[in-house]
C-alpha cells in the first residue's frame, strides 16, 4: 500500500507531492499522459519543443508560491529574468510596454491612454503585495474546519483586516472610482484580466484583480527548453525522496474502503492511506464512488473556457523587445471568448527548442467559451491569427517553417480535462475567495488541488493550491 496517491501531474499535483515528500511520505503519482506536467509543460513536435500553451512564468519573487516551494525543497530552477515582461498591441496600432518598474509603467500607461492612472496603479500594486504576502502566510485558507479558523486567527495581522472589503469590490468599481472606466482603458483591463483571472472587470473582485493586473510588475522569467524544465526538477526531487511517477495510467475509479483508498486505472489497482487529486473537479466526480463535498460547486461548460492554440516554428526577421505579446484584434474570431490573442516566443539565446539555431518557436492562444458546445473552424482561425501576426510585423507568413493548432478536442485528448476546458475556474463576483473550492474532498483523508481549487489558474495559483493541500493533510494527520 502506498503512503499517498496523487492523481495527475500538473503543477498543483507536483507541488503537493513534493511538499509531502518533504514531510517523509512517498507519493505515487498517476498521470494519464505520456509526459508529466499537464498544462504546465512542453512537448516535442517535428523536432521542435512547444509550450502546452502561451504562458508566462511568474512566482519567483519573495512571498510567492513558487518561491515558497523551491525554498522549502531546495530545488534549483535555472531561469532567465526578462527585462520587459510583456508588450500589448492595441487596436489603434499603439504598443504598450508593460515595464516591471511601477513608475515607468504608469508613465507609459498615461502617455498611451491619455489618462492619469497613477492612483489606480499604486492602489493595485499595494493590494497585490498584500495578496502575495497573505497567500503563503494563510495556508489554511479557505477555512474548512475549526482548526483552520484558529490557525488563520493566530497569523492574522490588523492591517490585513482592512483589505477584506476588497473581496466585495469588483475591479470595475475601482476603475469607476478612479474615473478610468473609459472604452479604451476598460478594453485593455478586460483583456489583461482574461489571461490572468479568466473573466472581465465586472466579475473579478479587487483582491484577485489587483494581483492579476500587476503580475508584470514582479519578476517574469523564462526557462530554456520550455516549461518541461520546470516540471522535471520537481519530478526528480519527488523520486529522489522515494516517490514514484507512473505515466500512461489514466484513473477510472476511486473508492473509499474505510481505512484506505482504492484507485483503479486502466492497467491496475492501487491502494493508499491518503489521496490527493490534482485533476479538475469535473473529472474527479466521474471517478469518485464516495461523496465529494464540493460537488455543488462544479462549474458547467457554459461557465468555462478552452483555448485555441497554435504552435509555430519560424525564421525571425527582427528582434522583438519582449517574449510575450497580447495582441488586441478589431474583428474577433467567430466563436471566440476574447478580443485578443496571446503570443509567447522562445528566447533568442535558447537553442534547445529547435534543431536549427536560426529558427524560433512561438505559442499562440485565445479563449474559446463553452467548450463542450462551441465548434470552431480550425483553418479559418489559423489564417486569421497568422494574418494578425503579419499585420503587426511579428511573424511573416513566408518565414514559417512549421505550424500546427489545437482546440477543445485536442485539449481533452492531451490533458483528459472535461470538455477540454483549461485555465481553471474563472473568477465570478458572487463567489468570494472563502467560498471557492477548498482542499478537503471528504473531510477524511482525501484532498484536492489544481486550478479548480482555491485560488485558481496559472502557475502561481496551482502551486499555491498544492501547498495548501499538503499543509492541510500534514496538519490533519501527520
TrEMBL record:
InterPro entries: Amino_oxidase (IPR002937), CrtISO-like (IPR045892), FAD/NAD-bd_sf (IPR036188). Residues 14-472 form the Amine oxidase domain. One of its GO terms (biological process) is carotenoid metabolic process. It comes from the Bacteria. It holds the Pfam family Amino_oxidase. GO terms for molecular function: oxidoreductase activity. This is Phytoene dehydrogenase-like protein.
Amino acid at each position: 500500500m502506498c503512503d499517498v496517491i496523487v492523481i495527475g501531474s500538473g503543477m498543483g499535483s507536483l507541488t503537493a507531492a513534493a511538499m509531502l515528500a518533504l514531510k517523509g511520505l512517498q507519493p505515487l503519482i498517476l498521470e494519464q499522459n505520456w509526459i508529466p506536467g499537464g498544462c504546465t509543460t512542453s512537448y516535442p513536435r517535428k523536432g521542435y519543443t512547444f509550450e502546452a500553451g502561451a504562458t508566462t512564468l511568474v512566482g519567483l519573487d519573495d512571498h510567492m508560491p513558487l518561491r515558497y516551494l523551491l525554498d522549502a525543497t531546495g530545488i534549483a530552477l535555472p531561469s532567465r529574468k526578462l527585462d520587459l515582461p510583456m508588450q500589448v498591441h492595441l487596436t489603434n496600432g499603439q504598443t504598450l510596454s508593460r515595464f516591471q518598474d511601477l513608475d515607468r509603467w504608469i508613465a507609459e500607461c498615461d502617455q498611451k491612454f491619455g489618462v492619469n492612472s497613477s492612483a489606480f496603479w499604486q492602489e493595485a500594486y499595494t493590494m497585490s503585495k498584500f495578496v502575495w504576502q497573505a497567500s503563503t502566510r494563510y495556508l489554511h485558507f479557505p477555512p474548512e474546519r475549526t482548526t483552520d479558523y484558529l490557525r488563520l486567527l493566530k497569523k492574522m495581522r490588523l492591517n490585513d483586516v482592512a483589505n477584506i472589503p476588497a473581496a466585495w469590490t469588483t475591479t470595475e468599481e475601482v476603475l469607476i472610482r478612479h474615473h478610468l472606466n473609459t472604452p479604451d482603458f476598460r478594453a485593455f483591463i478586460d483583456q489583461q484580466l482574461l489571461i490572468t483571472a479568466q473573466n472581465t472587470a465586472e466579475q473579478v473582485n479587487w483582491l484577485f484583480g489587483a494581483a492579476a493586473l500587476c503580475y508584470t510588475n514582479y519578476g517574469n522569467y523564462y526557462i530554456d527548453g520550455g516549461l518541461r524544465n520546470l516540471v522535471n526538477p520537481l519530478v526528480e526531487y519527488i523520486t529522489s525522496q522515494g516517490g514514484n511517477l507512473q505515466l500512461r495510467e489514466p484513473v477510472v475509479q476511486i473508492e473509499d474502503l474505510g481505512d484506505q483508498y482504492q484507485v483503479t486505472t486502466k492497467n491496475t489497482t492501487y491502494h493508499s492511506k491518503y489521496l490527493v487529486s490534482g485533476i479538475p473537479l469535473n473529472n474527479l466526480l466521474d471517478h469518485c464512488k464516495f461523496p465529494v463535498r464540493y460537488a455543488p460547486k462544479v462549474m458547467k461548460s457554459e461557465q468555462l473556457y478552452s483555448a485555441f492554440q497554435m504552435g509555430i516554428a519560424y525564421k525571425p526577421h527582427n528582434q522583438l523587445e519582449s517574449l510575450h505579446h497580447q495582441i488586441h484584434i478589431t474583428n474577433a474570431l467567430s466563436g471566440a471568448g476574447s478580443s485578443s490573442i496571446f503570443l509567447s516566443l522562445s528566447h533568442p539565446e535558447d537553442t534547445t527548442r529547435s534543431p536549427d539555431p536560426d529558427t524560433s518557436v512561438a505559442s499562440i492562444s485565445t479563449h474559446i467559451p463553452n467548450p463542450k458546445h462551441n465548434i470552431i473552424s480550425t483553418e479559418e482561425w489559423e489564417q486569421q491569427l497568422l494574418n494578425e501576426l503579419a499585420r503587426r510585423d511579428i511573424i511573416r507568413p513566408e518565414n514559417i517553417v512549421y505550424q500546427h493548432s489545437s482546440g477543445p478536442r485536442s485539449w481533452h485528448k492531451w490533458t483528459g480535462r472535461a470538455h477540454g476546458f483549461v485555465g481553471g475556474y474563472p473568477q465570478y463576483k458572487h463567489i468570494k475567495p472563502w467560498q471557492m473550492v477548498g482542499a478537503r474532498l471528504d473531510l477524511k483523508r482525501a484532498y484536492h488541488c489544481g486550478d479548480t481549487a482555491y485560488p485558481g489558474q496559472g502557475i502561481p495559483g496551482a502551486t499555491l493550491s498544492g501547498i495548501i493541500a499538503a499543509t492541510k493533510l500534514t496538519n490533519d494527520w501527520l
